[in-house]
C-alpha cells in the first residue's frame, strides 16, 4: 500500500513538496483556492491587470498521480486533517504549508480566480482615476507598490507613511549586516525621492481613515506629527498574519506567541514523527520568501522520501544567506545576492522585472507561460 501525504496549502511551498512526492506517495494537496496564485506578480497586476491573466494557474496540471482537493482544513491533528466540508482525512504524513494572510492587494483575498481578477481590475481602474495615493507601511510591500504606481503613472502623487523612523524596519532586515541594510535603504530612498514619492516616517494617521481601503474617494487625514495628507485612495501595506490556527488540539503546543509554528531542524513539529511544516508559517529564522518556502519544501520532500523508502538520511534545513530583491516597478529597485553584493535598479529590473518568474511556475503546471 502506498502512503498518503496530505499537503495543507497550495502556495509556493505546498505545490513544490506535492509535486516532488507525486511519484512515491498518494499525495493530496488541500487548498480552498481554485487556482495557484503567483503572488510575486500581485502588485504589478494592480497597475497592469493584464498580469492578472497570467498569475492564476489551475491546479489541475500540477500532479500526475495525486489529487488536489478544493477545501479548507479546519484542523490538523497528528494522523490526519479535518476538512471544512466535514469529515476527517487520514494521512500517513502531513505537511503544513499554510503561509500567511496579508491585506489586498499584496494577497488577493479570494478563493476564486475569476472573482480575484475582477477585484484586481476594479481596483486598477480606481487607482487609474486617483490623483494621489496613500500607502500605509514602508516595508517591502509598501515600497514595491509605490514603485509600481510611480512607474506606471509618474504624474500621480504617492505618499508612504510608517510609524518607524526608517523604511524596511521591523524584523524584515534583522538578519542583514546593519551597514548592508542601510545601503539598501539609502538606495531605495534615493530612487523614491527621484520619483517624487513622499515618505512620512516616524508617524501615522491620528485617527482611522474615513474611507475603506481601495475605495476611490477623496479624503484628508492628519498625521500625529501634524502633517496632512489628501488622497483619493489608500492601501494597507502591513498586517501579515501567519495561518497557524489550523493546528489542532494535539499539535497546538508548537504555535508560538507570534503565531509562527515551531519546527525542528528537519522541519518536523516538535514531538511529531510525521507532521512537518514549511514556508512563511514556520519560525525558522529565514526571510518570508517563496525562495525559502521552496528550499524547505525540498528538504521535507527528501525527508518524507527517506522515511518511506529508507534510502538516504534525514536532512536538516539551515537558512542560507538571505537573498532579497525589492523592485520599484519594471525599471528600478535594489537586490542583494550574497555572491554578487548589492545590485542597483537596472540589475534588479533584469533579475525580476521581466516576467516576474511567471514562466517558471507556468511550467510546473504544464502551462505554456
Ligand atoms: C506582494 C508580494 C511580493 C512578493 N515577491 C516575492 C518575490 O519576488 N520573491 C520571493 O521569493 N518571495 C516573494 N514574496 C513572498 C512570498 O509570496 C511568500 O514568502 C510565499 O508565498 C510563502 O510561501 P508559502 O508556501 O509558505 O505560503 P503561501 O504561498 O502564502 O501559500 C499558503 C497557501 O495555504 C493556503 N491555506 C491557508 N490556510 C489554509 C487552510 N486552513 N487549509 C488549506 N489551505 C490553506 C492558502 O490558500 C495558500 O494557497 C512576495 C510576497 C508578496 C505579498
Automatic annotation (TrEMBL):
Annotated SUPFAM superfamilies: FAD/NAD(P)-binding domain
GO CC annotations, alphabetized: cytoplasm
GO molecular function: electron-transferring-flavoprotein dehydrogenase activity; flavin adenine dinucleotide binding
InterPro entries assigned: FAD/NAD-bd_sf, FAD/NAD-binding_dom
Keywords for this protein: FAD, Flavoprotein, Oxidoreductase
Pfam families referenced in this protein's UniProt entry, alphabetically: Pyr_redox_2
Domain FAD/NAD(P)-binding, first and last residues per copy: 4-297
Family from the record: Belongs to the FAD-dependent oxidoreductase family.
Protein name as it appears in the record: FAD-dependent pyridine nucleotide-disulfide oxidoreductase
